[in-house]
Amino acid sequence: MHATLIRSALAGLRGTIGSTVRPRRESGMTTAEYAVGVLVACSLAMVMLGIVKSGPVKDALTQTVLGAVGLGG
After folding, report:
1. Which pTM was predicted?
2. Among 23, 56, 60, 68, which residue has the fewest nearby CB atoms (within 10 Å)?
3. What would the 3-class secondary structure string for the chain be?
């Protein structure tokens, strides 16, 4: 009799606890993910800056801008 009562009480608790506990939603970035994202963005910016400052790319961009302004030949 007591075992049945205990089982039924535990079953009721499991239903109550299971219905009130909601899974945690993973939205947004944690601090570590944010730091890695910033590091990757800065690294990509440095690579792109190095490419743009290289001789052939810099000359091509300069000619394009001067041609657009009307100062190029």
Report:
1. 0.47
2. 23
3. CHHHHHHHHHHHHHHHHHHHCCCCCCCCCCHHHHHHHHHHHHHHHHHHHHHHCCHHHHHHHHHHHHHHHCCCC
